[in-house]
Amino acid sequence: MRITDTADLWYKNAVIYCVDLETYLDSDGDGIGDLPGLTQRIDYLADVGVSCLWLMPFYPSPRRDNGYDISDMFGVDPRYGDHGDFVELVRVAHDRGIRVIVDLVINHTSDQHPWFRRSRASKDSPYRDFYVWRSDTPPDTSEEAMFPGQEDGIWTYDEKTEEWYLHHFLHTQPDLNTANPQVREAITKTMGFWLQLGVDGFRVDAVPFAINQTTLTGADQHEFVEPHDYLRTLRDFLQRRSSGTSSAMILGEVNLPHQDQLAFFGGEDGDQLTMQFDFTVNQKTFLSFAREDARPLAEALSERPQNLSVETQYANFLRNHDELTLDLLSAQERDEVLDTFAPEEDMRFAGRGLRRRLPAMFDGDPRRIKMAYSLLFSLPGTPVLFYGEEIGMGENLEVPGREAVRTPMQWSQDKNGGFSSARPSKLARKVVKGPFGPEHVNAAQARRDPDSLLHHVGRLARRYRDCPELGWGELTILDQPHHEVLAHRMTSGDQSMVLIHNLSPKSLVVPLTLHDEEKGTELIDLLQDGACAVDAEQATEVTLEGYGYRWLRVKRPGDPRLL
Ligand code: GLC
Q1: What is the pLDDT of residues 46-98, one digit of tens each?
Q2: Which of 79, 139, 367, 522 could crosslink 547 through cysteines, CB 3.0-4.6 Å?
Q3: Burial of 398 (0-12, 13-18, 19+ CB in 10 A)
Q4: Does 534 reside within a domain?
């Protein structure tokens, strides 16, 4: 029997919330957010309905890539606090029923990491083989650099030993040689360490790069190893170390089409990543938003592989901490989204994405923003929020690069949006200005306004959590005549819901026929008052306002649930 046969697969209907500590809440007035600051806001997060916190890297780091360049995987950057503060955060979160996952960077370290310092010191160093070196001049790899403009290739020449080392990201982020068993062991040791401190899983960074065998075999000293074995090792380790009743999860960043993602779940065996972000659905959602046409999204959802192993799950998101990448769309589709939502060059990133947050892309239209979050929570899978989304924060384009969306959390109208008492010039990042600034958008004000996005997201999160068919169920796209509308049904056992979203500003009437439903069945509106009878023969007509949305539970006669 597999361990997970008896495990609580809690992540299958969790509400995940991603926090950048740096910009969340500064408890000691130094301008930098910290662990005690976040701990003070756990009750706020519990109120929003969050059930799992994802902490972006908080490890010691020279911060050339927002902490994704780690110099000590076991440490806590003293700017954020110490291990005591970390354990206290985990304790308080667990007390409120919130699990905690942390970023695990398996593809690279900082060039300041002791492994790399030793590796570059000499060709005979025992750490030489922790990284990927080549002695011959590399070909032009400018197309492969993840940060074009900052790097012109993926190999950098190192004077000391006169060889080149591999880095898919910045040259200050050398790629680990993940084919090396010692590296694998060092990574599992890191997982063991944080699990012991109480974490419930990991968000694994840049997974396809970490098992990129082409580059590994390109460096002649490496023998071929089955790349996916590495992920199996991580998963096995995780299962051995997390208790049988509440299994820890690994949520991988695999920005690939659905069919290619399958191998990262471990196909039918499901023995690799437990979760993956669905980048296809994300990008097609934005194409659908741009066109006000639900068909691209409906197609992406329909072609998403179903019948995966029960332990696996997709994570849905609208925005994350990076650029909103559109690299899985065709060039023409990408241009459509960019032209619609990022008309100015300054709003774009590396020709492939946007450095904006969603409310600004929608010109602050509250109906459209609320519809988008309703859609997010209604999709099959687990929703992931990026901090500040729940109150409708915008970006600050004056902040360079991807950091434009990583500005201080807006708690109140006070100085620095209530994020910090430091002088504004000391802040980790500049606060948003203009219509999305803290005078207009902040958590304190949103709490007092029953119509706020914050209350809407809270309602959606609670509804999502008590509708297991959304996280666990099977999807059917329902036929109806409007291309502006996505109507889908989620079913798990005898529980079923119908979810309808109007992506356009036009008001529409959606006829729905639910075949095979017995007499007396009703559709109960879960977000507002109302119900309508279902007739197996005749279509039920549901009216949607512009950007309207409905969550309708199929209630059969005798259904005992509290609705
Ligand atoms: C992932 C992270 C991103 C980071 C990169 C390199 O894509 O999400 O922020 O820059 O990996 O670590």
Answers
A1: 999 999 999 999 999 999 999 999 999 999 999 999 999 999 999 999 999 99
A2: 367
A3: exposed
A4: yes
